[in-house]
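Lab notebook, design round three. We kept the backbone fixed and only want residue identities now. Task for the bench partner: fill in a sequence for the structure below.
Input structure tokens:
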């Protein structure tokens, strides 16, 4: 078994507002390897907990610029067996919303984490590190999507910029 860095991407759908339900990743073939439903269910929620950052682009190394923060996961992820996917919500900053609104048809979401992969290319674990992220990137795959606009719980707290 080999330890690798995992990067998987997904398309954005047309949405409005700043808090969205997202499909982080779906079981199947990704650019880093094949993800089984069992691995996503077991490791996904712990690897990308509430508060995980969303950046504009994948950074180099583990230290990321504050300027590239686009939002954060606003809920703990949940694995849904119906489509073998990991779901959560993201609350975008005003900066992140600008990217989503202007480039929604041309960008996607991508996970950034480490994990174990076997010699057959099957991902066997996704590790938690505080530097894991779900990022806005230029190309999409792994079938993750921004799905539904969610109503803000408090109209005065529409963005992370207000927190």
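Proposed sequence:
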């Amino acid at each position: 078994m080999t330890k690798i860095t995992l990067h998987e991407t997904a398309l954005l759908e047309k949405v409005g507002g700043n808090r969205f339900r997202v499909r982080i990743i779906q079981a199947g073939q990704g650019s880093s390897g094949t993800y089984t439903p069992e691995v996503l269910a077991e490791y996904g929620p712990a690897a990308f907990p509430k508060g995980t950052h969303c950046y504009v682009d994948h950074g180099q190394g583990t230290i990321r610029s504050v300027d590239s923060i686009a939002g954060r996961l606003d809920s703990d992820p949940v694995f849904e067996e119906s489509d073998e996917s990991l779901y959560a919500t993201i609350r975008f900053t005003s900066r992140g919303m600008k990217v989503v609104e202007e480039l929604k048809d041309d960008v996607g979401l991508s996970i950034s984490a480490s994990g174990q992969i076997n010699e057959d290319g099957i991902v066997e674990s996704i590790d938690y590190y505080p530097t894991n992220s779900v990022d806005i990137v230029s190309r999409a795959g792994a079938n993750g999507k921004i799905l539904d606009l969610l109503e803000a719980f408090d109209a005065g707290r529409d963005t992370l910029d207000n927190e």
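Keep this in mind before ordering anything: The chain is about 15% helix and 40% strand.
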